[in-house]
Amino acid sequence: MTPAARLQAAIEIVDAVIGAARAGGAAADTLIQRYFRERRYAGSKDRRAVRELVYAAIRRAGEVPASGRAALMGLAADRPELRVLFDGSAHGPAPIGAGDVGAPASALPAWLAEKLSVHLDRSEFPALLERAPLDLRANRLKTDRDTLLAALPGARAGEHGLDAFRLPEGTQVDLLPEWQQGLFEIQDEGSQLIVQACGAQPRMVAVDLCAGAGGKTLALAAAMRNEGRLIACDVDRGRLAGLAPRAERAGAMIEQRLLDGGRERGGLADLIGAADLVLVDAPCSGSGTWRRNPEARWRLTPATLERLTKLQAQVLAIGADCVKPGGTLVYATCSLLPEEGPVQIDRFLGLHADFRADALAFGCRSGEGVMLTPAQDGTDGFFVARLLRA
Fold it and tell me: Which keywords annotate this record (predicted)?
């Protein structure tokens, strides 16, 4: 592909991303894969170059651009070498006309910037969209971090997590024998800190109420040394199905329980008041993961946020029912929006006098919990609160 053809491909993909964001369709990563699946002639260098253009244009445009062409024209305003590629060649984009307007640069949609500025300085906004590092977690069921640091070229210890380390960007993790042997997992360091906040111990009864594909569940299994009872729950069959092969590779002993959405308590009857630990990693806006999914900020609307906060309150109440007296409830969201963090916990504590907040030794204080941010901690953005039941 010529440089102009690469630019035109990026325009077409961003058009698809914009359409999907408006209609609730597939993520950018998926759309990029689909695009090149239909264009086998594109080599690996072409795919990499187009992908970089797509994500650069998405990260630059806070508001949803009018079109992929407007998004890439906006990027060309910052990168003059791209402007000359609007040359009208056979496979390139049409020349930029006098009336063509590129998308303006802004980190966030205005309504989200206003909400986030409650807890974040606006100087931190660009860090929310920077490329995320490759964070990993040593699997204590099979090895330790020091062994992996010695074995893996370029590996360095994380700054916060006890088992956290990083590999150079672009490392093909799935080709490493250590990965194939289940010696480590890909997991953001902030996500690892959430598990540390749980304080999981052997012989506990622990419930991961919104387990998804089980990244945090696997870390809980390692902390518990496969001793005790660990139950991974979710209402999404497809997401939960991803846990079994991961658990087998990691050597983790985990029960799985598919819950019926809207009737979760019925599927948890035997666990009501019985768990030493319940982790509620609640469904959320994902505003803390925009480094990985920058187009997600185009998808989020005030109505969606309101729906999510109601769901979070419901799931948190269900989790609280499972905690036994003296047990621990950990609430977490990969979000930096106050409605999904400190406001949610304030509401919960106002309704549950038998719970109290417990201090955490990381992050920045946010209400009765803490926040981790890309700018301050080098992690994805998270809110975490640890609550103890009397």
Answer: Methyltransferase, RNA-binding, S-adenosyl-L-methionine, Transferase
Low-confidence stretches of the chain (pLDDT < 50) are none
Taking the CA atoms of 13, 18, 24 and 29 in sequence, report the sign of the dihedral they define. Answer: positive
Rg (CA), the chain: 22
Range list of β-strands (E), 204-259: 204-208, 228-234, 255-258
Residues labelled catalytic: 334
Please check whether residue 188 is in contact with residue 257, taking contact to mean a CB–CB distance below 8 angstroms: no
Residue 195: what pLDDT? Answer: 97
Q: Are 357 and 369 in contact (CB under 8 A)?
A: yes
Give me the residue label for tokens 């992929």: 68
- Residue 160 has what pLDDT? 92
To the question of whether residue 346 is assigned a binding role by annotation, the answer is no
Contact 298, 64 (CB under 8 A): yes
Q: For position 119, what pLDDT does the model report?
A: 86
Q: Where are the beta strands (DSSP E) in the chain?
A: 134-138, 156-157, 164-167, 184-186, 204-208, 228-234, 255-258, 275-281, 323-333, 355-358, 364-366, 369-372, 382-389
d(CA 283, CA 286): 8
SS3 label, residue 321: helix
- Residue 281 annotated as part of some ligand binding site: yes
DSSP string, 247-298: HHHHT---EEEE--TT-HHHHTGGGTTTEEEEEEE-----GGGTTT-TTHHH
Looking at residue 262, what is its pLDDT?
A: 85
- Give residue 316's identity as a one-letter amino acid code: L
Of 31, 37, 41, 38, nearest in space to 11 by CA:
31
Cα-Cα-Cα-Cα dihedral of 291, 292, 298, 302, to 10°? -80
Tokens 């893996």 appear where? 152
193: which 2 tokens? 């800190």
| Residue 135 annotated as lining a ligand binding site | no
Query: Which has the closest alpha carbon to 125: 326, 353, 297, 242?
Result: 297
